[in-house]
Amino acid sequence: MSPPKASTTISLPLRLVLLLLEPLGALNGAYLTLFTPSSYHSAIVRPHPPSWSPPFSPQNQYLYTQLAGAWLVFAFNESVILWLYDDLKLWKLMCWGMLISDLVYHVSAVQAVGGWERFLGVGGWNLFDWAVAVSAAGPAAVRVWICLFAGQKGGREKGKGE
Questions:
Q1: Cα 40 to Cα 141: distance, rounded to the nearest angstrom
Q2: Which residue, 37, 46, 54, 156, could crosslink 113 as a Cys pair with Cβ 3.0–4.6 Å?
């Protein structure tokens, strides 16, 4: 028996989030952190307490380079590996790994704005905050769905051999 296919188990809109939309966002993030790290820093960090904000330092460029590398791995895994291999088990394994990174990324977003109280105060969010939230939470939700529900009864199609 052939392994269950991602293309027959996961709907096209959900696959496009991981195969096209998120890789483009990851490439954009890599570009920002490699070539305009001080602008990226200014957009993502909120003063906490309000009178203080950690300044951007060129001495910390290596941290932004590491972040760019992580985003480039995401872009590669999604737009190359997932595109080439139509195997639901591989997609699930890749998504579990990416969810680990998602969890750490979301914790860093909370840290960047000054903690949970400020993070949950969505009324004070700016356009960049909303763009980051939507572009990170949407694909993470797709990965959760794939990991927990793809190939199960009631899903799009039950994969053979599962």
A1: 24
A2: 46
Residue with tokens 């704005």, as numbered in its chain: 113
Q: What token pair was written down for 87? A: 């195997």
71 with 30: CB under 8 angstroms?
Answer: yes
Task: Identify which of 44, 64, 39 has the alpha carbon closest to the alpha carbon of residue 110.
Answer: 44
31-90 pLDDT per residue, tens: 999 999 998 888 887 766 655 667 788 899 999 999 999 999 999 999 999 999 999 999
Least Cα distance to 72 among 14, 27, 18, 117 occurs for 27
- Could you identify the residue written with the tokens 């699930």? 92
Q: How many CB atoms lie within 10 A of CB 111?
A: 13
- Full-model pTM: 0.83
The burial class, CB within 10 Å (0-12 / 13-18 / 19+), for 89 is: middle
Q: In sequence order, what DSSP letters do the residues of 74-101 get, joined into one string?
A: HHHIIIIIHHH---HHHHHHHHHHHHHH
What radius of gyration, in Å, describes the C-alpha atoms of the chain?
18
